[in-house]
Amino acid sequence: MTFHATVLTLYPEMFPGPLGFAIAGRALAEGRWSLDAVNIRDFTTDRHRTVDDTPAGGGAGMVLRVDILAAAVDAQGQGRPVLAMTPRGKPLTQARVRELAAGPGAVVLCGRFEGFDERLFEGREIEEVSIGDYVLSGGETAALVLLDACVRLLPGVMGAASSGVEESHESGLLEYPHYTRPVEWEGRTIPEVLRSGDHAKIAAWRQRRAEEDTRLRRPDLWERHVGARVNRPLARGDDVGKS
Which InterPro entries match (predicted)? Predict the structure, then answer.
């Protein structure tokens, strides 16, 4: 099954953009996934192809019209989740990315101006998604981030099937630091344990560093990680030797 992405946007020329290069671009050329960029203006009915109007209640900016957006979404049919990129959405997580990558694809709706008419989310099943606590000029950049995160997890896209297993956020922790040659650079050397050949010690060092870095850099992730670890059900043998 090919992962099929449809992007609903006012700027279809922005796609595939960066997704046409490196591993995502190779996978696109190989047919491991497909991409359509659909112009929202194609669903307008007036000669000016108007997609927005002034905010109800007054205020600056313009708001994307619900009738135009709904027509664009409805034209994509059923079977794939519809996601709207908006800073008001639920934060995107690696777990959600994995769910999306395991499915048939996604319809991604890109906002502009002051955003979407709220009735769109009342009248259609649309998942509001945010890639961070900041505001972009439009949802296209966020859509590129979302799709890049999904595409790299598709079968055969990354060189090795295990490439994504130990990355940041896969286990709820940040990834451990990496090193490569030269062994010494400006007086700084690769940690001795990584040159020891002792795989058990290396694994323990990596786990310890992942925990330390997460605790120091992302206390929010660390708190969730510790909470999940404390609250998880005991596996068989976990309570052996404990009183």
Answer: Alpha/beta_knot_MTases, tRNA_m1G_MeTrfase_C_sf, tRNA_m1G_MeTrfase_TrmD, tRNA_m1G_MTases_N, tRNA_MeTrfase_TRMD/TRM10
